From TrEMBL:
Keywords: Membrane, Transmembrane, Transmembrane helix
Annotated TM spans: 40-61, 67-88, 95-122, 134-152
Name this protein carries in UniProt: Phosphodiesterase
InterPro entries reported in the protein's UniProt record: Alkaline_phosphatase_core_sf, Phosphodiest/P_Trfase
Source organism: Aeromicrobium phragmitis
Length: 705
């Protein structure tokens, strides 16, 4: 046989044969492992009846009578669809693993159509269907099945959880891994008081049972400033409390902004905070986090953004209760969001923010599709025996930012996450490892109006006016950037998804009068002042001053800037550093100068930190001492009477600075853990988690690389 020319791969016969052999082996293994049970029988009957009803409705809606009105014919199609699916889905799963992001997307969109098409083709007496009719019938059946499952289960998640659990049990039979394990679930933005309220209100029955039984304990840990996800996860996953000054900041050395919703920027921070011995360094799995914790397996992790190509993600895309169902429920979540936003407007609920535009799409994407994918990935890695898993669920944080952390829809988000915890406990009972489950948050949230609503201008516009500078639109963007983080992970990992999400976002945004661009604008290079807002925290930089500009230099250049900010009715604190290296804290009714230990060196009037709790002095010192902290650090006003904080972004639920519950995160841990009774901060929680891994024998001796 002549050889193929250089550069021409030639025929792929070997690859095709290898794939066929692999598929055959998968089918044989499934048949060998199959054992009938009562639960299996009930599940099959339930699945068959749901599929039959869904197909009947879907086919009835199509024009023509290819099958007719014969109920037996519809039942035959449903039975054949289940049989074909049982044989074909393992192959589709393998195909999705081999073909990467594009294959994942195609399998997710077309798996049910392919299975239905094959079933109709082999069933005798059925008139031919066109491709478009098959696709419409398959997706119609998915929609009807989702509605039926919701109706009979009072939850749209039960069928999905059952399917994921069944797959985890099958995967677990092939794993010989034994011993202890640890699953750490981060409920993004759920503060300790919010969790207590959810437990007493019945929105978190699983956590409530754990706490009331004495099996788990609830502890508060203090985030300090900044109270943000990147800072919280830097502490939890890497023990770092120095390199992250906010959610977004300006890097003077590089002359550019750093934003924690951009994967490239997060990867840069990851390099700074990692010493090779993060929380997950010894065989751990990082799922949907900002940073990796030095995990060998990094899935949907911002600092290493790529679409997961493991079997958990592939199975999620290929199964009938996976990706297709999630897309249907995503649309339902978007409709729910439009209704809830309209209800807030009609009832004149305040404070509130606009909830249209990008957020409608992103709420559905993050609280349905991303959540379901996270669940599938965690269950998969529990089944194969990963020693430690850390996963972040953003559902509550996403909704609370726009609805408010104390609002009913935010508590409903916690209810869904509580069901996820119950499901993980069910998976843990049937896997080889004896998994412990801990729940943690990265920060809380504080509710309140926005600076623009109260002042009629952004903070950047106020700074320009006080500094007598012309307005510069480049840095006046106060749209929330945090919302885009999970979507950016997916779009960075899959360029095709980027175009899809971008186009959909522009369509939604334009239709509602919002902005369709998720890009973070860079400040104008000619602008001497750079203002970066992160929730209720803002950093102001003198661009041309290396290092930290002193208070004296700021007053010399812009005599009205600090004074004007301090006197502003919607600003609570302004931090600057003096030429002597002391931190000056200014409030509306007084100021204090603090030494490095937090002692008061000088001051006048009322202590500006009086309403911010016993840790406030340490918090502001830590904030000012972080790398790339602003020359001025500004925090929104805190109203202790209403427990409300002013946000510099258009968010009704915010975090970043001081005041309210934003700095009070939570830790729910098994009661037999060795946890200090003293006050906890992020580094202390990191040490608790690392210590527990040592006790379980899941961590080697720490080595600093």
């Amino acid at each position: 046989m002549p050889r193929a020319p250089r550069g021409d791969p030639g025929p792929r016969v070997d690859d095709v044969a290898r794939m066929r052999r692999r598929y055959g082996a998968v089918v044989v293994r499934r048949l060998r492992r199959w054992t009938p049970s009562g639960r299996w029988f009930v599940g099959v009957v339930r699945l068959f009846m749901t599929s039959a009803a869904a197909l009947a409705v879907s086919l009835w809606l199509l024009p023509g009578e290819q099958i007719g009105n014969d109920a037996l014919a519809v039942l035959s199609v449903a039975a054949l669809v289940l049989a074909v699916g049982a044989l074909l889905r393992p192959f589709l799963t393998q195909l999705a693993v081999f073909t990467g992001p594009l294959g994942l997307l195609l399998v997710g969109l077309l798996a049910d159509s392919v299975i239905l098409g094959i079933a109709l083709a082999v069933l005798p007496g059925v008139d031919p269907f066109g491709v478009s009719e098959i696709v419409l019938a398959a997706w119609g059946a998915v929609v009807v099945a989702a509605v039926l499952n919701w109706f009979f289960d009072s939850s749209s998640d039960e069928a999905f959880f059952n399917q994921v659990l069944g797959r985890a049990l099958r995967r677990g039979r092939g794993s010989d891994v034994r011993g202890p394990g640890l699953v750490i679930v981060q409920l993004d933005g759920v503060g300790v008081d919010t969790l207590r309220h959810a437990v007493t209100a019945g929105s978190a029955p699983t956590i409530g049972r754990w706490l009331r039984s004495g099996g788990h304990r609830l502890r508060t840990w203090h985030t300090g400033v900044p109270a943000t996800t990147p800072a919280g996860q830097a502490a939890l996953l890497h023990g770092d409390t120095h390199h992250v000054p906010a959610f977004r900041w300006f890097d003077k050395e590089r002359g550019r902004t750093v934003v924690s919703s951009r994967p490239d920027d997060v990867a840069l921070v990851q390099q700074r905070i990692s010493d090779g011995r993060g929380l997950l360094a010894d065989g751990g799995v990082s799922i949907s986090n900002q940073y990796s914790g030095d995990a060998p397996v990094r899935l949907l992790t911002m600092s290493a953004a790529r679409v997961p190509r493991d079997r958990g993600a592939a199975a999620f895309m290929a199964t009938s209760a996976g990706f297709a169902r999630s897309l249907v429920l995503m649309v339902g979540q978007m409709i729910t969001e439009v209704h809830q936003a309209r209800r807030q407007r009609r009832r004149d609920v305040v404070p509130r923010v606009a909830r249209g535009g990008n957020f409608v799409l992103l709420r559905g994407l993050t609280t349905v599709v991303l959540r379901d994918l996270n669940v599938a990935l965690v269950a998969e890695h529990m089944a194969i025996g990963a020693p430690v898993i850390f996963v972040d669920f953003v559902d509550f944080d996403e909704v609370a930012h726009h609805a408010g952390p104390a609002r009913p829809e935010s508590l409903r988000a916690i209810e869904g996450l509580d069901r996820v915890l119950e499901f993980f406990a069910e998976v843990a009972e049937d896997t080889g490892r004896d998994y412990e489950i801990a729940v943690v948050s990265d920060h809380g949230q504080s509710q309140g109006p926005t600076f623009r609503q109260l002042s009629g201008a952004t903070l950047a516009e106020v700074v320009d006016a006080l500094a007598a500078l012309p307005a510069r639109a480049a840095h006046h963007d106060d749209r929330p950037a945090e919302t885009w983080g999970p979507a950016n992970v997916l779009t960075e990992a899959a360029p095709g998804a980027s175009r899809l999400i971008g186009a959909a976002t522009r369509t939604v945004a334009v239709g509602s009068g919002g902005s369709g661009s998720p890009e973070e604008p860079e400040p104008d290079e000619s602008d001497p002042l750079v203002v970066m807002a992160s929730g209720s925290l803002a950093q102001v930089y003198l661009r041309d001053v290396p290092g930290v500009a002193s208070r004296e230099l700021i007053d010399e250049r812009y005599p009205m800037l600090v004074t004007g900010l301090v006197r502003h009715p919607h600003i609570g604190l302004v931090l600057t550093r003096t030429a002597e290296g002391r931190l000056r804290v200014d409030g509306a009714d007084g100021w204090r100068s603090l030494d490095a230990a937090g002692g008061v060196v000088d001051g006048e009037g009322t202590d500006p930190l009086l309403d911010y709790g016993p840790f406030a002095a340490g918090d502001v010192l830590d904030a000012a001492g972080r790398a790339h902290a602003g020359d001025l650090i500004v925090m929104g006003r805190y109203d202790a009477r209403l427990d409300e904080v002013v946000a510099f972004e258009e968010l009704v639920g915010s975090h970043g600075g001081l005041g309210g519950g934003q700095t009070e995160a939570m830790l729910v841990h098994p009661a037999d853990w060795d946890v200090p009774e003293t006050a906890l901060d992020g580094r202390a929680v990191h040490e608790v988690l690392v210590g527990r891994l040592h006790q379980l024998g899941l961590r080697t001796e720490d080595r600093r690389e």
